[in-house]
Every structure is written in C-alpha cells, then in structure tokens.
Design a protein that fits this description.
Shape: globular
Number of strands: 12
Distance between the termini: 40 Å
Structural class: alpha/beta
Largest sheet: 7 strands, parallel
Oligomer: single chain
CATH class of the domain at 2-181 and 202-235 and 297-313: Alpha Beta
Radius of gyration: 20 Å
Strand order of the largest sheet: 3-2-1-4-5-6-10
Amino acid sequence: MKFLVTGATGLVGSHTARALLEGGHAVRFYVRDPLALRRHFAALGHAVDDIVTGDIRDRERVGAALVGCDGVAHAAALVSLNPNDTRAMEEINDGGTRIVLGAACAAGLSKILYVSSLSVFFRPGAHMIDESTVLATPREAYARTKRAAEDFARGLQEAGAPVTITYPAAVFGPDDPKLSESNHALMNFVAQMLPKTSSGMQGVDARDVALAHQHLLEREAGPAPQEARYILGGYYYPWAELGAILEAVLQRRLKSLAIPGGLLRGVGTLADWVRPVIGGSGQISADAMAIATRWTPADSTRFLTSTGLRFRPGAETFADTIGWLARAGHLTRAQAGALAPP
C-alpha cells in the first residue's frame, strides 16, 4: 500500500514513516523541508524520493498529494508551550488537520490515521483516563488546538468515515530529527535536575507508537469508526520511580529536588502573570505545572487487547534515548554516564 505521511520531520511522523517503509509499504512524504527529510532518512539507510513540498494549510497542495495513495498518517503538529505560537498552532494543529482529514475523506481513502494527544483528556483529579473519558476543556494553546481538531476528527468518525485516532502520551525515543519537547525535557532531567513532586509522568516509546500506527493502517477491517480510538499510553511513572529508572540506566546519581506540587503550580501562575511584561517562553506556566503535578494515569487496555502488541520496557526507551542524545551532542559524556558513546 501507499501512504501519505505528514510530519515526517518530527519524532512521531519520522518513526511512523520508517516503520511503514520497513514494513514494505510505499511512502509519500509531505514536508516543508525536503533537504532535512532526505538527510535524516539517509542517515537511517533510506533514500526517499517521493516527496511533496508544501504546507498542510495549503488545501489544493494537500489534495494533490493524496492522489494515488491508499491512506494517510497525519502526524504533523506544532508542539509548543510558548504563547507566542498560539496563532500558528491554531492554523496548523486545528486548521491543518481539518484540511488533511477532510481531503482524505473527499478522496475516498480507506485508511486515515490521525495522531491526537492525551492532553485532550487531561482533567486534574480524575482517577484514570481511557477512551471513554469526557474530553477536557483545556486553556493552554497546544491542548486547546488539539481538542478543536479532535472534535473535527470525531465528527468524521460519527459520519462513518474510516478515521482512526491515536492518543500518544509524552513520546520519547532516539533518532529525533528536531529534538521534540519530550526528549528536550528528558535531556534537562539528565543534565540539570529531575523534580520530585506530586503525580508523575506518562511516556511511550516513539518506536512503539510507530509500530502501532503501522498495525492500525495495515489491518483489513477495523471496528466501527466511533470505536477506532486508541490510547498509546506506554507507562505511568511517579517522579521518584522515574528518577530511579534513570539513575539505573545512567549508573550515576541525578540532581533532584523535592518540590510540593502546589508550590510549582503557584510558580507557574506567577510566570503567566509576569510573562507579558518580561517576555520569555511558556516552559513554566500554570498549565504546564498542572500537567507535571496533577497528571492522571491513562489506560491503554483497548489498544493492547485489540492488537496483541506490547510496549517495550521504559528502561530500554530511556537508555536508547539518552544514548542517542549523547551521540547527537545534546549531552556530555559525564551527563550520559554509562550511556556515553565509546
């Protein structure tokens, strides 16, 4: 089969495209930077030539790129905590998704996969998240734009369109073309400090997400469209447990500081107040600190039961990712500890 993949210069999209290529499928890439795409895949041993250069906000260009394809994996998104990127996220995460999924349905494609986000479910204080959880009403721009796109994708499903939606947790993994937000956070945990606070973090391996996408796109007959929603949650790590796993693979101690969740949320609120005056990004914000300190575990049972696939151990994910971060020059040998390259 032939699939159009958007977002293939990002962590999830690149691994999804790689899994499809190595699974024997033809892949057409829809990207804004074909040189970066070729360079990345050449380093992985793949020469790519079926490339359409364009922006997912270009309706005509997207429609033309879908011609001759059997399906599409839409992974393109702008992930940012910077309030200055709000308009771009509205145009790309929501508007671009409407264009890609709408064009795929109009073209009669039988396999349409949309990569959503667990953030559309985030409700502080909930006991557990699964696919039946009522969608949240987020304030933060990224989650808000993904929620808007989610409404559109679900509307297509309700109308009977063959749209499958996945909800990855924070995605970690090696061979990251642009150093994703999650991998950047992991780099900071290793190089600077790991917070020990309330709640924890949920993470999944990019390679497992890619294999999940390959499986879902290859299956002959899926469930009813309204049921084709799958949380790819990987594992939930309380902060202390995450620190123990990282120290085990690094074979060294991490700098760590116990900080009450309420204090971090207060700092995030204060940062929101002063940011319009002093500027800066949104790495520390009320919403970001709420996610860090009040995250609810997500249940991947539907995906695991229906596919028979499994998530690789978290220690393997973090070891491979940290090793890659060191080889790519994002961590020093001392920071990478036992995972430093020879």
